[in-house]
Amino acid sequence: xxxxxxxxxxxxxxxxxxxxxxxxxxxxxxxxxxxxxxxxxxxxxxxxxxxxxxxxxxxxxxxxxxxxxxxxxxxxxxxxxxxxxxxxxxxxxxxxxxxxxxxxxxxxxxxxxxxxxxxxxxxxxxxxxxxxxxxxxxxxxxxxxxxxxxxxxxxxxxxxxxxxxxxxxxxxxxxxxxxxxxxxxxxxxxxxxxxxxxxxxxxxxxxxxxxxxxxxxxx
Length: 219
Description:
Helix content: 40-55%
Structural class: alpha+beta
Number of strands: 8
Distance between the termini: 93 Å
């Protein structure tokens, strides 16, 4: 018998991350084999382990992009921040023209899951926001920001205002994720600052003690 419920799409609330390699087509034209090798190295060495750590689900992979879903916005933003922190370190010994940078967009919204595929307005918003993010940067929607702003002190957020993006009606409230420790330190709660300074002070004391011991041994 026909069951109308079986034809209904599976709608879920998810945190969506879209990461897209900047200038990938030009890099492929210049060196297809080398570019694909480096891209796969980043996928296996950085994206895959962090996906496991934050329990993300890789829904789609294109030649130059990943579409990933998470159960929480905190996990999604933490994943994106770790990716953007680790990528420059991993590629620090590569020539400049070999380094691959990613734009990342994060949204918290409804998606439609059909088999192993995912689509819907939540995905579209993340994709549009990724397209206007800075290379090496992360933009998140207002929905995602409201879920993470009081729950993450290892990053900070900058309100960049509503973003008018291509092929999307209206504008999208957006926030830039700030990874710079100096900038973050100005935005974390006072208790976190105090704890951080205690660690710094303790390390400084150890350095002084070690220096004194070394001077004594040499004299």
